[in-house]
Amino acid sequence: MTVNRRFLLWRRPQGEPVPEDFELVTEPLPELAEGQFLIRNHYASLDPAMRGWMDDADSYMPPIPLGAPVRASTIGVVEASRAEGFAPGQWVMGLNGIEDYSVGTVGGFTQPIDPGLVPSVTNYLSLFGAVGMTAYFGLFEVCEPKPGDTVLVSGAAGAVGSIVGQLAKIHGCKTIGIAGGAEKCKRLTERYGFDVAIDYRGKDEAALTAEIAAAAPNGVDVIFENVGGIILDAGLANLAMNARVGLCGLISEYNSEEPVGARNLWRLIVKRASIRGLLVADYVARFGEGAAKMGEWAAQGRINIDEHVDEGIENAYSAFMRLFSGSNQGKMILKI
């Protein structure tokens, strides 16, 4: 008998999630109603934003209900269908749960994909998924870089940050990346083409501010922010006139019971700079445009993408926590 393993949110994490916040259960397969289809999930995208969905707090998406599977972008194959347009054997991508099987509905978030168009079907969770589109539209639509600008990227070795740096270089910008550890900083310059890599580990805000100033003596024109905390404050201390700050994430704050927040916002006034939040959901209707450009640059060898795949739904917790320890080496994906 086929069963459905499901990785459930059992209680709200207080600070950093612990294994007891989750439960792996086995349940019967769900029955399909008219207009529904059953998806056998193969891969799930693990992203820092999922930590925010676990809190009972107002956000751009409702909290994950307790006792429900942890929400994630997934790719899989239609196993059975009572829905027009979704045939058994068809590959699909959608926003489902970390579970063996999910039920999709016509008109929902799940869409067909063609694995023959990409080197690996997992690329739909990285370069051609929300990660790549966040980098593309976040940089070009929100941050609006101009050739010759200096672009500072925090979390630069991460899934989004590594692509942002490469796109900025394609656009003719100077790029400075901030990452944790010598190995990741080496990857920034040697694999992703950053002009300068700054290792934040073991440094306070003053030291980071000084390193950014040394790399950008005329200030930074664009900050693509993924981390927050003292890294954001160090970047704000180095703004150029009329700089743009794109706020993509604040991973340093997600597990903090008392978030630090930005303390150098006054520099926005001094430099007549702007700060703007960005959310990839605003650009869904234009994903085709972004994917076409990304595909073109990837085919030319101008973009490198790394994926870190951990296997087994039983390892969902440890794989997810790699995002916060920094032990992943590329876009974090779980092979269910």
TrEMBL record:
Keyword annotations for this protein, in alphabetical order, are: Oxidoreductase
Please give one Gene Ontology molecular function term for this protein: oxidoreductase activity, acting on the CH-CH group of donors, NAD or NADP as acceptor
UniProt cross-references to InterPro entries, sorted A to Z: ADH-like_C, ADH_N_2, ER, GroES-like_sf, MDR_fam, NAD(P)-bd_dom_sf
Gene3D superfamilies on file: Medium-chain alcohol dehydrogenases, catalytic domain, NAD(P)-binding Rossmann-like Domain
Per its UniProt record, what Pfam families does this chain match? ADH_N_2, ADH_zinc_N
Q: Give residue ranges for domain Enoyl reductase (ER).
A: 17-334
What this protein is called in its record is NADP-dependent oxidoreductase
